[in-house]
Amino acid sequence: MLEQLEDRIAQSDGGARQLNSPLTGEDYAQWTDRLRDIEELIRDPDLRAEAARVREAAREFRMEYKRHSKEPQWDMVKKMISSPLQELQRKVQEELVRKTAKQNELVPLDRDPVPEKYRTELDRYFERLGEERSK
């Protein structure tokens, strides 16, 4: 779901309409239904509210597109939908790890969030660390 939106943002060429975007394409209803399903599955009220905000932002972009046939401003879509969805996905994954971890497993709890500008470097570090352990 997130990948479709990110692909469209990356492919945006300043106005050429491509109907494969969840916001401008025929699969909007299916995409927003899946987002609503995710929202309903989330038990944490803060995360659920974030999912609702993202879905509402997508609805507003879609309404604007349908009313005026105006291509969405993809930088705003990234700021209001794509980036929050990525953050929501990360938080839900962390919550799943906490909920599914065995009693004796060590799971990082309540760690401070990594600033976005360092996240890529941290991800690379852990990938290298995992590669070294597998040798």
Question: Would you mind describing this structure in some detail?
Answer:
By secondary structure, the protein is an all-alpha fold. The protein has one domain (2-104). Helix content is 70%, strand content 0%. The chain has helices at residues 2-11, 28-41, 45-68, 74-100, 116-134. It is globular and about 55 Å long. Mean pLDDT is 79; it is low at 12-19.
Q: Main traits of this protein?
A:
mainly alpha
Order of helices and strands: HHHHH
Q: Uncertain regions: pLDDT < 50 for 5+ in a row?
A: 12-19
Oligomer: single chain
Count of strand segments = 0
- Number of distinct helices: 5
| Protein structure class | mainly alpha
Mean pLDDT comes to: 79
Compute the number of structural domains. Answer: 1
Query: What is the rounded Rg?
Result: 18 Å
The main pleated sheet reads as: none
**Global geometry:** globular
End-to-end span in angstroms? Answer: 34 Å
Fraction of helical residues: 55-70%
DSSP strand content: under 5%
